Amino acid sequence: EVQLVESGGGLVQPGGSLKLSCAASGFTFDDYAMIWVRQAPGKGLEWVSAISFNGGSTGYAQSLKGRFTISRDNAKNTVYLQIHTLKPEDTAVYYCNAKNRLSQDVLWGQGTQVTVSS
Question: CA dihedral in degrees (107, 12, 59, 50; nearest 10)?
Fold first, then answer.
């Protein structure tokens, strides 16, 4: 069964840090670029960050650069999103996507809630 399972979300105070994980199974992980997107309450999806199939290339939303770091461990079939200096506006459901580098098919996880509040 193809699965993407996000974890690591929760309630954190402004200024805190979180590391989100997305564990993949049921497909060849290193055939896929990995992407994080988020959806804040009442808003549309926002592209956050992406990493290439081998981890050699990364990208970030301009407004988030410097606070977010994406990484992957192909031996563990896992992608990570480290978030520093969290702000209330980072409150959202964070989803990981897997995008096949040949077919461009996209797989979705179920999301993990991040709430930034004092």
Answer: -10
**Cβ–Cβ under 8 Å, residues 42 and 55:** no
- In angstroms, rounded to a whole number, what is the distance separating the alpha carbons of residues 93 and 37? 8
- Dihedral of alpha carbons 33, 96, 107, 61, sign: negative
Query: In a structure prediction context, what are the per-residue pLDDT tens digits for the chain, which is 118 residues long?
Result: 999 999 999 999 999 999 999 999 999 999 999 999 999 999 999 999 999 999 999 999 999 989 999 999 999 999 999 999 999 999 999 999 999 988 889 999 999 999 999 9
Q: What CA–CA distance (Å, rounded) separates 38 from 15? A: 19
Q: Are 66 and 1 in contact (CB under 8 A)?
A: no
Provide the pairing of β-strand 10-12 with 106-108: unpaired
